[in-house]
Structure formats: structure tokens, C-alpha cells
Amino acid sequence: MRSLTPRLREKTAPFFMRTIKLIIQYDGTNYCGWQEQTNGPSIQETVELALAKILGQRVRVQSSGRTDAGVHAVAMPAVFRTESTIPLKAFVDGVNCHLPDDIAIQSAVEVPTGFRAIGGARSKTYRYTIYNAPVRSPLNRRTSWHVREQLDLQAMQQAAAYFVGEHDFAAFRGANCSAVTSRRRIDAVQINQSGPLITIDVTGGGFLKYMVRIMAGTLVDVGRGRFAPEHVAGLLAEPDRQRGGVTAPPQGLSLLQVIYPG
Which residues bind substrate per the record (predicted)? Predict the structure, then answer.
């Protein structure tokens, strides 16, 4: 009588899936944002197609959040699941061979199955960069907002301090933001200047659509003398988008870092 052992082993063999976390850096100038859309190329779609060249099949890559059209990332975490046993190095060197010059995988690590890129982050840090000079800079045009008027850095720093803490940021959200609540926690806002470059680093637990760009635009309006620093406190106490500052253009914004518990 033929043994059934080999067939039973094959049928009951454990199903193994790896969860891989990538750190992706990109210049978002030529893309419609992170999320795949029908109106142009996205970072997500481009990365997934490059991964498919290595894996032989399309996998879904989930990031820690969405960046808008024209926004950049120094270190965007993103995860996917695969049955492939290829070494982690292939997810860096191999995938980068199939990516355009404005996107690159910086690292790949294996994480526990339950790891969540989105919703599981402890904090995120965004940087908004302003080129503050009378004459525009061709070399900085893709990564900064050119503001010609001299800005009052001290007034901007005073205004930035009001953002820290948990507040209702309804005055700092885009009109089409779908978030259920506009309350958010901001841990730190740091403003520094090096020559003509002014950077605004914002760290918090989460952000509304266009939130950092509207915060940056409002701080620039403070620096221009349009608002007093205390105006920010008023917008947080009595939210009104119409009384807020401009929405800063996307090219000055970059995702710097995402921190996860542990």
C-alpha cells in the first residue's frame, strides 16, 4: 500500500509570509503624490512595479502616510508582504536597478507580521524649507519656497511655540480633508536659518491634509508682518481657516523621519 506521508506533509506545510519594511527616499517633483492615482504617476505605483520585476508578481506597498503632489521624502517607511525568500539586499540593490533616478530604496528590514506602517507611528517629522532672498535660486527651486521679503525669524519662532501641545487644528487643514477629527498633537516646532535657507521642522503624532504647509504659510505671514505671533494662538483657540495663513507650495515640504514604538 502506497504511503500517504509525503502528500500529507506537502498539504499541511506551514504557509510562510515575510513582512518587509522599506525606507524610501524620493524627489516628488514629477509625481502626483505617494498614493496611486489615475491622473499621473505616483511613488507607490512606481515602487510596486519595480518590486514586481524582482518578485515576479505585484505586491501592495503600504506607506506610513500620503505625501501630496510635489512633496518629497528623506525617509518614507513602507511595508509589504511576500512569500519570497530572496535576501534583503535584493530589495535595495535589485529594486533600485528598476527605479528612476528620483526614487531610491535606502534600506530593507524584516519586521514582525503585525507591524503597521500607517497608524502605528509614534511620531513623524516634516521639514519645510524656505529660500529667503531677493533673487531666486535655480539650484533650490525644486526643494524650497522662494520668499523675497526679509522674514522676521524671531517673530516666527515666537509664533511657532503656540503650536506645541494638543489643539484643534481646524484652521490648518485643507478644504477636502477627510479626517474625522481635527485635534492633533504637536511635540516640537523648530525654526533655524543658515544663510538664505530657513527650515521649519515640525514633529507630531499625526497631521491633517496640508496641515504642515498651512502652518508654514502662516509662519511666513507672521515673518512678513501680516500677523502678530499671537495670531496663531487665536487660530487654535477659535479655529477659522479664513483667518489663517496661505498654504505654502508643496516643493518646500519633505518627510524627514517616522518613529515607531520600540
Answer: 126
Determine which one of 68, 102, 168, 187 is catalytic: 68
Query: Do 166 and 52 sit in the same domain of this protein?
Result: no
**pLDDT band at residue 15 under the 50/70/90 scheme:** low
Residue 261 or residue 106, greater confidence: 106
Among candidates 76, 91, 123, which has minimal Cα distance to 19?
91
Cα–Cα nearest to 19, from 52, 62, 53 = 62
Annotated binding site for substrate: 126
Which residue in the block uniquely carries the three cell numbers 506602517? 117
Specify whether 27 is catalytic: no
Q: What is the pTM of this model?
A: 0.91
Domain carrying residue 161: 123-259
Looking at the structure, do residues 77 and 160 belong to the same domain, yes or no?
no
Say whether both 208 and 157 belong to one domain.
Answer: yes
